[in-house]
Write a structure and sequence with these properties.
Strands 6, 9, 14, 15 and 16 form a five-stranded mixed beta sheet that branches. This protein has a five-stranded mixed beta sheet with strand order 10-17-13-11-12, covered by helices on one side. A hairpin with a 2-residue loop joins strand 2 and strand 3 (about 40). The model is unreliable at about 1-20, about 30-40 and about 95-130 (pLDDT under 50). The longest helix is centred in the middle third of the chain and has 17 residues, at about 130-150. It is an alpha/beta fold. It is elongated and about 80 Å long. Helices cover about 30% and strands about 20% of the residues.
Amino acid sequence: MAMPLKTSDSVTIQNCIMQEYPHLPAREQARLSTLRTHGKAVLPGEVASFNDDMATAIALSIGAPIQNPSRRALQLTEGGPDLAGFVHRWWQGLGLNFDSYDRKVPIRGAWRTHRSDRKRAEVQLSGSAGDFPSLLADVLEKSIRASVGNYKPTSDLWTVKVSAKTRNSFHRLMSDSPNTLALIVEGESYPRVVRDVDANAPATSISKFGEIVSLGWMTLYGDDLEFLADVAKRYAGIEGKIRDSLVYELLTSNANTNDGNPLFSTAHANTITGTITAATVGTAAGKLAAQTTVGSKSERMNLRPAFLLVPQALAQTAGAVLRDSRLDDDFDIQRVVDGRLDASSITQWYLIANHKMTDTCVVGHREGLESATFERKWNFDDDSVDFKVRYEVGVTIPDYRAFVRSSGS
């Protein structure tokens, strides 16, 4: 009796044999269920693992940045990147004998066991290259998953990452840090300082981003691996790119803060003029240090600069100033360059405080959803497959005191 091999349903050879020939001794079942082709063997229990390695191998061949692939996946890439070659190695690994690759011709293999109780047990497994699109769908999902995080956002260097358990928006705790502790005289009580959520601070609202990409059956049925590579490249680094876009759009928009003044304004004492020089960077550092805490007891926060944020147009100037003036030694300042700033101004630059001392820009996620999520669905009506990519994130700048901006002129 012909038993179809359905890799998409994770039906193993062992299951087929046990269901068709339950009377066979375990030794005969094991012998029958060991697949051998050209001297190679794949045990039925390894079918799912083999399929996963094959999908990884194809994803590697189209340039997906798969981390820590298995040795078998690397070996499966050695036969060349063409799809026909991968089909050949796939069926060969599953133990199926065939003469040539043809999408229209079924590929069949047969295994026989020795005589047992004067009976010859035979199981014939059949499949076709039409099963391969399911594996290519795995390839595309692997490639997209590996690509979305393949980007280093510049904003990650100086922003604050927080997570909310269930809410769509949340406030930060007050970020003012005391410069000292109270002197406790023997016999006196410790002063009680309430550190609570700052309800006046702007809330970080979580927004949802995503789309559905739909691939037709004939697209997966075809032999164009470059098409799969192009689809995966579309989502390369999408998480970090979304974060960077939101952060720099918020920073350059100079929107009003909760006190009604623009983020960068005279009222906030966080603006200067001048191009990037040792003197102007020193002036900006003085502005950071002079910011004060809120509340009944105002104290200098003595914030220290940690990041010099510049557009691409000022990258070389900023690097030369930090190197030649040794400002990076005095203040331990790191240059951060991002071309998104050029769209707003090619002259403005920013000095940002250490995000470990005070809030800079807050990047928020829901707990457990710090990365993009994926869902895949096969459509019964037209045999197409849909991939849904969803990413949830929110950004806000709760405190103007962590920034100084120069007009650059």
